[in-house]
Amino acid sequence: MANKAQQPPHLHLAEVTASQFLDIWKHFDADGNGYIEGKELENFFRELEMARRGAGVDPSNPTFREKMKEFMQKFDKNKDGRIEMSELAQILPTEENFLLCFRQFVSSSAEFMAAWRRYDTDRSGYIEANELKGFLSDLLEKANRHYDDQKLQEYTQTILRMFDLNGDGKLGLSEMARLLPVQENFLLKFQGVKLTTEQFNAIFTYYDKDGNGYIDEQELDALLRDLYQTNKKEVDVKNLTGYKQSIMSLSDGGKLYRGELEIVLCREPIV
């Protein structure tokens, strides 16, 4: 996607609005893959330096590379060499700070999953536009933010534009999880162990011994350990406990049904 303007928008501002933040994001995430990386990242840092210093910078200068390295050490929280949206929110605070506002409301992945369960009222594996509006309304009230219906609608549309990457008017769990701080986004830990629907059905049937359609916390523990061993990943007991608690936040009285677990472990939920 070619940049429409030579000068990137809004980088000179001390604070940006939610819409301006989105403009900046779309300008630099040129391929729309959800990250600013590679050449995009170099372009972003160069333009940010120019906007803040009011002078041109030379990317071939060793000093530029050193500054960019320091910049990434500060803001690239998960050290993957690229900037994702939650990290950009730290670099460019929004006027309303709705991303950080979200984190005050849902500061851990367990809280996030509990909130997800509340607002995905039809258990579709998605939060749709009308469900998202209720979610944001509660978020703003808990954060003591004043808003009117027009502002709430604007926030809803902005969040949809940010995270609804396929434009279907609804947000999947993994899309919404991008609002979490990187270190709390436990779904990232399962990126390398995502199951196909067939694999998921086989493994769920194996652990649902009595065929009642759900597994309990002990069975989930065994399932996750097996997943890690199968994918040759070291099992960090402390982290595994956290992941298990987060996933069990989706359960109904300790019963984790097939559809709820499928949202976490499969590429796409069955619809």
From TrEMBL:
It comes from the Eukaryota. Residues 16-51, 63-98, 107-142, 151-186, 195-230 form the EF-hand domain. It is found in: Cell projection, Dendrite; Synapse. The keyword Repeat applies. Gene3D superfamilies: EF-hand. Signal peptide: none annotated. Pfam families: EF-hand_1, EF-hand_7. Transmembrane segments: none annotated. Keywords: Calcium, Cell projection, Metal-binding, Repeat, Synapse. GO terms for cellular component: cytosol; dendrite; nucleus; terminal bouton. GO terms for biological process: regulation of long-term synaptic potentiation; regulation of presynaptic cytosolic calcium ion concentration. GO terms for molecular function: calcium ion binding. SUPFAM superfamilies: EF-hand. Its main location: other. Belongs to the calbindin family. PANTHER family: CALBINDIN, CALRETININ. Calcium-binding protein involved in calcium homeostasis and signal transduction. It plays a critical role in buffering intracellular calcium levels and modulating calcium-dependent signaling pathways. Predominantly expressed in specific neuronal populations, influences synaptic plasticity and neuronal excitability, contributing to learning and memory. During embryonic development, it facilitates neuronal differentiation and maturation. This is Calretinin.
